[in-house]
Amino acid sequence: RKEVEQDPGPFNVPEGATVAFNCTYSNSASQSFFWYRQDCRKEPKLLMSVYSSGNEDGRFTAQLNRASQYISLLIRDSKLSDSATYLCVVKENTGNQFYFGTGTSLTVIP
Amino acid sequence: DTEVTQTPKHLVMGMTNKKSLKCEQHMGHRAMYWYKQKAKKPPELMFVYSYEKLSINESVPSRFSPECPNSSLLNLHLHALQPEDSALYLCASSQDGLGHGADTQYFGPGTRLTVL
Question: How near does any CA of chain B get to the CA of A83, in Å?
Answer without folding.
Answer: 14
